[in-house]
Amino acid sequence: MSLHAVLRGNAQTLFDTIENRFDGYFGGADNPLRHLGALGLYFLWILVASGLYLYTVLDTSIDGVYRSIDYLSREQWYLGGVLRSLHRYAADAFVLVMLLHLLREWAHGRYYGFRLYSWITGVPLIWLAYISGIGGYWITWDRLAQFSAIATTELLDWLPIFSEPAARNFLAPDSINDRFFTVLVFIHIGVPLMLILGLWAHVNRISRVDYLPSRHLMLATLISFLALALLKPALSDAPADLALVPTGLRLDWFLLFIHPLTDLSSPAAVWGLIFGATLLLFALPFLPHPQAQPIAVVDAANCNGCARCHADCPYEAVTMALHPDKPGHQIAVVDADLCASCGICAGACPSSTPFRSQERLVTGIDMPQLPVDALRQQLEARLAQWGRPTPGKPRLVVFGCDQGADVRNLDGADTATLSLLCTGMLPPSFVEYALRSGADGVVVTGCREGGCDFRLGMQWTQERLVRSREPHLRSLVPLQRLQVVHASRSDGGLLAAAVDEFRNRLETPGPQSTRPPAFSRRKIHHA
Amino acid sequence: MPKPAAIAGQIVLYGAFAAFIGYFSTAPTYKQIPDDVALIKLSMSHLGGRDCRKRTAEELSKLPPNMRAPLDCPRGRSDIKLVLELDGKSMFETVMHPTGLSRDGVSTVYKRFEVKAGTYQLAVKMNDNLVNPDFNFIKEAQVTLKPAQVLVVDFNPDKGGLFFQQSAANKL
Questions:
Q1: pLDDT of B12-55, one tens digit each?
Q2: Cβ–Cβ gap B110/A167 under 8 Å
């Protein structure tokens, strides 16, 4: 195993452990670590809203720029001051969640294959975020702004891009003029606009994007920022004075850490680090990684053009086109570059029902590595091994997910386990089929809420099982005989305990003793 | 997890998040230079001289009337030699090269020097046309530098060539 794989594996374990702990306090839907991208977008909207107000009151003359911002912070602290503080703290939090988002996606190996596009389009956003953030600090034109402006231009001057040193613009108090701040504000608005455009591209290839986190999460983070704004308002340092070197700087380490780093090393080392890290991020998807899985395959004869796979695909990999053989009908078409090989489309296909009598079950859209027919064969083989039922000893079928807790550890004489590519691949009719073919209960398990490796697999499965999404579980299936367990990769113990508890519940006679009518499939030996 | 414990946990974690953001947005403080140090910034942007030749009357007569410039100058500029001395000791010495593919642009320099606050004899010498062996611009003065003060060494023909600038109100 390579060093990179070991590092990544350890990082993933660390993230999983912390996220699972956080689930205990926040729940999956409100767990900030499971919604870092959406949180970043939310912080950006706070930045835009607070920035619009700051822009309207900003005086862009040399003397006015400091005075107008300082006035906001001290005289109009209840509005302008709070908005200025929100602007600063949201910017810092944006950088923090952006870097955590990057680390988390890397740790989960989400940077190659169908995720290549999102990864590559995400890298320039880091540059744009830092350009926006550092430039924003200059607008206050206090000692910190002076320090950052000089340090940044000195760093830029190491690159052979300017005919004259850019740092000469900050040599002496009379070096800059009013136009400087007008240009600066233009850049500070223009670059974030590019960032928003880049974010649109970043999420362009996924469906049902979480543009905002949950209301609870938005409210809690906003309250955190407001508390900070009141307890520790963002204030300007003394006005910039180019005749003096600023000392004792209250540095924003989220955005301006690059300046002390340059002082400690050299501009060459810092540019080497910046370009090296950027190149590494761009190159990461092209380094050796696990081979891509086969993508979904459409069977024209069995596709009725219902478009459920199109609606459920989390990556917009399935589109609908005119059916080649059935005039007036549509057919699903899979984009190989976008397909995540998750099988959620197979779970959405109404033809994926095991009740069909054909010897070989061919569905409208299927996964070559685990066809629905193979799933039915495995289930039937396990059910056949059970023989006659023993009173008081419930027999369970556990449907699991390759990305979540390993269900194979639960396999036993009275427990049949089947692991799917993603729980979203499970057609609800398989639950009914298992119960009507001899199982006393069915457990469906997948990743924790907000932690699905394929984004929507567990959500769609739950909705299908509670009959709010097509294809839904039929009403003749008593929900008391069904248990859904959220268990991520490290939750083997939690899953085993939940299965034991479910088994004990089934052992006790009660309303759950009702069961759907038995079913034995009539087999037809032709397609 | 019981609801009160979950709410308490959330308050602690959101508080920790706010404290983390709040602290590192302004702390720890950073000092770029020690307390007793001042800064000398040597920066200039100047076109080097050219080795021009005076055209003879015969040459001028052969030229079209509108192109009879008395001097024949090459496009390229000379390198510029620069020396900075502090209390008689050489602090920095360089040869600045003209920018541009045809070496016809300005020659530039930008350097920072940290020195202990105090009084020094500062001298800067420049030769902007290396055809001549001697420095054609020299500026020398006693300067007193306070802690954190910036002294700029620059060149501007309109200000008499080389000059020192400590602040707008304290030009040397």
A1: 999 999 999 999 999 999 999 999 999 999 999 999 999 889 99
A2: yes
* Complex ipTM tops 0.85: yes
Domains of chain A, by residue range, sit at 3-286, 297-513
Q: HSE-up of A217 (CA within 13 Å, CB side)?
A: 26
Which residues of B fall below an 8 Å CB-CB distance to A?
Answer: 1, 6, 9-10, 13-15, 17-18, 20-22, 24-33, 35, 38-39, 41, 43, 45, 99-100, 105-106, 108-110, 112, 148-150, 152, 154, 165-168
Q: A16 — contact with chain B (CB < 8 Å)?
A: no
Substitution target from A147, A224, A252, A258 for chain B, most B beta carbons within 10 A = A224
Packed helices A62-74 and A36-57: angle between N→C axes, nearest 10 degrees? 110
Supply the Cα-derived Rg of chain B in whole angstroms.
28
Reduced 3-state DSSP string for B4-32: HHHHHHHHHHHHHHHHHHHHHCCCCCECC
Tell me which residue of A114, A116, A117 sits closest to A336, measured CA to CA.
A114
pTM of the model: 0.90
| Cβ atoms of A446 and A401 closer than 8 Å | yes
- Give yes or no for a contact between B129 and B82, defined as CB atoms under 8 angstroms apart: no
C-alpha distances in Å from residue A327, one per residue of A306, A310, B90? 14, 20, 90
Question: In CATH, what number does B37-50+77-165 get?
Answer: 2.60.40
Question: Taken in order A237, A243, A247, A252, is the CA torsion positive or negative?
Answer: positive
Angle between helices A267-283 and A143-157 (to 10 degrees): 80
Domain A3-286 classification at class level:
mainly alpha
Q: For A193-232, write each residue's pLDDT tens digit.
A: 999 999 999 999 888 898 999 999 999 999 999 999 999 9
Q: What is the pLDDT of residue B51?
A: 84
Distance of CA A188 to the CA centre of its chain: 28
Strand B80-86 and strand A441-446: pairing? unpaired
Instruction: Report the length, in residues, of chain A.
Output: 527
